[in-house]
Amino acid sequence: MSRNKVPYVEERLMKRVQEMNVSGQKKVIKTWSRSSTIYPEFIGHTIAVHNGKKFIPVYCSAELVGHKLGEFSPTRTFRGHAGDKTAKKRK
After folding, report:
1. d(CA 32, CA 13)
2. How far apart are CA 78 and CA 90, in angstroms?
3. Rounded to the nearest 10 degrees, how much is the dihedral formed by the CA atoms of 37, 40, 42, 45?
4. Parallel, antiparallel, or unpaired for β 46-50 and 55-59?
């Protein structure tokens, strides 16, 4: 992580996680905030991150602390390189 950037978490998301930690609940939290950083308070919770089409569940563990939620919810689907089809036709 860059030294000059402060970790960002959407206030509403952080508030919901803290409420769940106090009550001891384990529910999936839906969010559109892909730029939010995973904090230690998120460990053990599942956060569904929107990728533009659907929500992708991300289970937060200790290894993910410091990463952004958007890293685990790809927005594009890779369908292969265009050159693969032409190479097969030539053979």
Report:
1. 10
2. 23
3. 130
4. antiparallel
